[in-house]
Write a structure and sequence with these properties.
about 200 residues; alpha/beta; 3 helices; 8 strands; about 30% helix; about 35% strand
Length: about 200
């Protein structure tokens, strides 16, 4: 092997060694944080049953973003949710709705009002120029009493992102999720019997 080839081989080995020594950093993990934001003053209500589901793409832990109304969602390469967004939002709904009264799981509480919630959007949406973005959360809810539909509502909330990156999107989605949960709580307050009052009385 001549000197030139030896130098090339040595350079390749050195580069490989450097690459092996620099393990890729694990992705940043995010969740919705502690539920500490204030909620609207609403009357206590009867217990409810929460039946919850989300569109399939929200079962993955990717932090989703898109530009405007584009049909092409993307996920940040180095950022992930600690749990699937579907589960994070379900937990936050239970936490915030529980401030007005007990929230039971699907299949429990026979005879109680049942709220069927479907999470349809949970993503960071950028303006066309990339200079601003919002966290966008959308869901629809159907209220049933004795298996009869007594009301339904579509909720869509947005909150501005302070920074145009995954961290900014997460913070905005946290605020939008809390706002959506509070809107749902307010909607239920006018349709589910108050605590101490028998449903149907």
């Amino acid at each position: 092997m001549d000197m030139k080839k030896a130098i090339i081989v040595l350079s390749i080995l050195l580069l490989a060694g450097c690459g092996a020594g620099r393990m890729a950093a694990p992705p940043a993990l995010f969740d919705l944080g502690a539920d500490v934001a204030a909620t609207p003053a609403l009357p206590a209500r009867q217990p409810i049953v929460l039946a919850y589901e989300a569109v399939p793409y929200l079962s993955d832990t990717g932090v989703i973003w898109r530009v405007g109304d584009s049909a092409s969602p993307h996920a940040y390469a180095r950022s992930r949710w600690a749990s699937a967004p579907a589960e994070l939002v379900r937990q936050r709904l239970v936490e915030r709705l529980s401030r007005q009264g007990p929230v039971l799981g699907a299949g429990m509480g026979a005879g109680l009002a049942q709220v069927q919630v479907t999470l349809t959007r949970f993503e960071q949406v950028f303006a066309a120029d990339g200079q601003a973005s919002v966290g966008h959360v959308a869901m629809q809810a159907v209220l049933l009493q004795d298996r009869q539909v007594v009301g339904q509502v579509r909720i869509a909330r947005e909150a501005p992102a302070a920074t145009q990156d995954a961290a900014g999107g997460v913070q905005a989605l946290r605020q939008a999720t809390d706002a959506a949960a509070d809107e749902l709580a307010g909607w239920l307050a006018g349709r589910v019997a108050a605590a101490g009052v028998r449903a149907g009385s």
